[in-house]
Amino acid sequence: MSRPETPIADGAACALAAWLRARRHAAQLSYLDLAQRTSLSASTLSRAASGNRVPSLAVVRAYAQACGADPDEAERLWKQAWYDSTAKKRPLRYRIHVDCVRTYADLHAALIDLYHRQGSPPYRQLEARAGGHGQLPHATVGRVLSRQSRPRQEFVLAFVQACGDRSGSQLAAWSRA
């Protein structure tokens, strides 16, 4: 019989850790069973569900798949945990909703906030999501996010869509911004 898991500490990763643990218990799997179903070690999987820090997205998705859980739901929870855990590192001025955008500085802050809400994906990944080379060049993404250039409306809409926000009302709000 294995020893009981330690209680989850309160923090950014607690909802994700609780969700992972619940999926493992529902599947009636041990960490050794999970390790055999993934290419990860039992200790890596155990740390992922500890709640002490936010694990990598790859670990979370593999954990969920091994339990027979929805990896997209795992990714959604991971993005929230990642955003919450990195929020302390970002100045408050970079957390702004798109409906509050009035200036280029506001737009820049809203774009950065959206980028972090999506788990800060690599620029090349955003470029690939937008349809490949030329649609959303990764170099342009870098320049816009570092405030070296001002984005055009086409860039903003492509960036928002690449970040996964494809709802019509949100695109309209971003278009107005």
Automatic annotation (TrEMBL):
<feature type="domain" description="HTH cro/C1-type">
    <location>
        <begin position="20"/>
        <end position="74"/>
    </location>
</feature>
<dbReference type="GO" id="GO:0003677">
    <property type="term" value="F:DNA binding"/>
</dbReference>
<dbReference type="Pfam" id="PF13560">
    <property type="entry name" value="HTH_31"/>
</dbReference>
<dbReference type="InterPro" id="IPR001387">
    <property type="entry name" value="Cro/C1-type_HTH"/>
</dbReference>
<protein>
    <recommendedName>
        <fullName>HTH cro/C1-type domain-containing protein</fullName>
    </recommendedName>
</protein>
<dbReference type="InterPro" id="IPR010982">
    <property type="entry name" value="Lambda_DNA-bd_dom_sf"/>
</dbReference>
